[in-house]
Amino acid sequence: MKKPVVLLSGGLDSATLLHSCAAEDPNVHALSILYGQRHVREIDAARAIAKRLDVRFTVCDLEHALRPIFAGATSSQVGIHVPVPFGHYADESMKLTIVPNRNAVLLSVAAALAVSLGLNTVAYAAHAGDHPIYPDCRPAFIDALSIALELGCGVSIYAPFASITKTDIVKKGAKLGVPFDLTYSCYVGGPFHCGRCGTCTERREAFRDAGVEDPTQYADLV
Question: What is the rounded distance in angstroms from the CA atom of residue 14 to the CA atom of residue 24?
Answer without folding.
Answer: 16
